[in-house]
């Protein structure tokens, strides 16, 4: 028999006796039941993660008297949805820093992640379009799956997806901010998947916001660059001269609004969705 101690970050500890043939999964199950916690990550005293539930505790190098730390993982849910008036969609359950994403639902909209499951190591962020998922990994790369037309296939830009800091999504496209402040996008071109027309302007990007089919980026100098469906905020040329010193940006279904340094507001996109704020412009002052 092996006597092992599992300790939570709170310092609560429990000892467990296991048969020689027990697995890491057996130890984790005992800890989960005893501590009444659903998702745990076991880490040895040397800092090695015990991620393979099939590995025997002996092969994992554990010996009688060893202490293992159990870190509590916080589950997060992300979902896809084909459209507002159609059936279909999928869910993904994931953990920040985790090595597994559990998916279910329509396999064509991201419900089947088996083809990329082995690549999903150290997931930092998970984002979804209407029918695809994309994950930022610990090494700054990105893995995507689901409907290729909606961003599920990122192979065309895979070599560029390095040092990814943030992901945003429209209905059918993804955009990633890289460590150098540039942006890489993929998916349906008309939904923002093609940013080539503004690529030279996408430098020093601080933040991305979206409407249903367009992206807008705040740059380091406080200006804004937008692309995607022009009717849904992808064309900000009519207000470009006003977009200076932008402090905050927000998008709804088909329009964007920006707060400037002086407290005033500039909006563009579909008038019906707030893209025209002229009637209240005199009130929109800091």
TrEMBL record:
InterPro entries: RCC1/BLIP-II (IPR009091), Ubiquitin-like_dom (IPR000626). Residues 2-72 form the Ubiquitin-like domain. PROSITE patterns: UBIQUITIN_2. It comes from the Eukaryota. This is Spon1 protein.
């Amino acid at each position: 028999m092996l006597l092992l101690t599992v300790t939570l970050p709170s310092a609560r500890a429990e000892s467990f006796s296991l048969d020689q043939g027990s697995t890491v999964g057996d130890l984790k199950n005992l800890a989960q039941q005893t501590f009444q916690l659903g998702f745990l990550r076991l880490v040895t005293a040397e800092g090695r993660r015990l991620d393979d539930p099939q590995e025997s505790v002996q092969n994992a190098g554990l010996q009688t008297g060893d202490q293992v730390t159990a870190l509590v993982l916080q589950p997060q849910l992300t979902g896809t949805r084909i459209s507002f008036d159609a059936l279909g969609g999928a869910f993904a359950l994931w953990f920040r820093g985790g090595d597994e994403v559990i998916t279910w639902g329509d396999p064509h909209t991201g419900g089947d992640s088996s083809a990329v499951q082995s690549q999903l190591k150290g997931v930092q962020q998970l984002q979804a379009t209407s029918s695809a998922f994309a994950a930022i990994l610990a090494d700054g790369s990105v893995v995507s799956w689901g409907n290729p037309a909606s961003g599920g296939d990122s192979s065309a830009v895979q070599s560029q997806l390095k040092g990814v800091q943030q992901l945003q999504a429209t209905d059918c496209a993804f955009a990633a901010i890289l460590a150098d402040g540039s942006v890489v996008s993929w998916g349906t071109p008309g939904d923002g998947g093609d940013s080539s027309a503004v690529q030279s302007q996408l430098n020093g990007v601080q933040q991305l916001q979206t409407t249903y089919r367009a992206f807008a980026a705040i740059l380091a100098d406080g200006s804004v660059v937008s692309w995607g469906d022009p009717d849904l905020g992808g064309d900000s040329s009519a207000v470009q001269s006003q977009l200076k010193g932008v402090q905050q940006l927000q998008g709804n279904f088909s329009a964007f609004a920006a707060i400037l340094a002086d407290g005033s507001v500039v909006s563009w996109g579909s008038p019906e969705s707030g893209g025209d704020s002229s009637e209240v412009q005199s009130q929109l002052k800091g």
